[in-house]
Design a protein that fits this description.
Blueprint lengths: L6 H13 L4 H8 L3 H13 L3 E6 L2 E6 L2 H32 L7 E6 H14 L5 E6 L1 H22 L3 E6 L3 H7 L7 E5 L8 E6 L2 E6 L6 E6 L1 H17 L2
Parallel strand pairs: 4-5, 5-6
Antiparallel strand pairs: 1-2, 3-9, 4-7, 7-8, 8-9
Helix pairs in contact: 5-6
Length: about 240
């Protein structure tokens, strides 16, 4: 009960149960609480329905609720606390969802070929919008992970109906694939500014992934943050529209 009734209130209630009806003076003596402190405690207990104030024959006495009534009161109070706790948990849950729009990010790192391959697979597994916005150094991508793209990643992405809008610098590999763009559920536009960067940026849902095409040890980063993803998508769309 310590969470419902503080120690001084508990002391006053115990004194009242011993005396049954008590004046402030007699209650002060049994509890050793001076009357200046005692009166505010009694007022709080009265407001909470635990104590009644009775005026009789020119004197004021205080009476606690009966023990069965107190038991009922305590059960009701516990239920109220449970309800408030559930409401608080629900509120915290709703705030957690709203955190998706904040600048707090979930960041994961991927190292080595196998790790980077797992990162690419995330783009079709966790993609409710079925769309990827990609900025790719196409030559570096094929030079590092070409077999993986052709034999694993593209077939899985296509199988799951995930489309791709791709900005890339001009290259023989890009020109070749542009001829079969629809087959690969892909739209492609060439833009010179991404030449020789040796990276790919993929934007999908609330995520942005960056891959560095190091021949010996490719690496990747996955950032989950709604605002960052939206900003990157806006940048992509601007460049897409500007590239003609």
């Amino acid at each position: 009960m310590k969470d419902i009734i503080n120690p001084k209130e508990k002391k006053v209630l115990l004194g009242l149960y011993k005396l049954k009806n008590a004046s402030a003076q007699s209650l002060s003596k049994i509890t050793l609480i001076n009357r200046t402190t005692l009166y505010p405690i009694l007022e709080k207990l009265i407001v909470r329905g635990l104590v009644t104030k009775i005026q009789t024959e020119g004197r004021v006495v205080f009476r606690p609720i009966s023990r069965p009534e107190f038991e009922t009161w305590s059960v009701r109070k516990i239920e109220e606390i449970k309800k408030e706790n559930k409401e608080l948990l629900d509120w915290i849950g709703s705030q957690a969802k709203e955190d998706d729009t904040s600048l707090i990010s979930d960041i994961k790192f991927y190292e080595g070929r196998e790790g980077v391959e797992n990162l690419y697979h995330d783009s079709w597994r966790d993609n409710a919008e079925k769309m990827i916005y990609a900025i790719t150094d196409y030559k570096a991508a094929y030079g590092t992970l070409g077999d993986f793209f052709r034999n694993e990643y593209f077939p899985q992405r296509i199988k799951h109906g995930v489309r791709l809008k791709n900005l890339l610098p001009p290259s023989p590999e890009g020109e070749r694939d542009k001829k079969e763009a629809e087959k690969f559920l892909r739209e492609m536009k060439f833009i010179d500014i991404f030449k020789d960067l040796n990276i790919e940026i993929n934007i999908y849902g609330q995520k942005v992934s960056l891959v560095s095409f190091d021949q010996e040890n490719p690496t990747g980063i996955l950032i989950k943050n709604k605002k960052i993803a939206e900003a990157m998508k806006n940048i992509f769309e601007y460049l897409w529209n500007e590239s003609g």
